[in-house]
Design brief:
Layout lengths: L7 E3 L6 E3 L4 E3 L2 E3 L6
Antiparallel strand pairs: 1-2, 3-4
Length: 37
């Protein structure tokens, strides 16, 4: 398995940093989970 080279992004609601490929985009903002939407 290759190490992740994804850019880390911050959730708009809780500010937790997650890999960009796991982020949820909504209304141009980035969220870490459905709970933060």
């Amino acid at each position: 398995m290759q190490p992740s080279t994804d850019k880390m992004v911050a959730c708009h609601a809780c500010k937790m940093h997650i890999p960009e490929n796991e982020a949820i985009m909504h209304d141009g903002r980035i969220y870490c989970s459905k709970e933060c939407l």
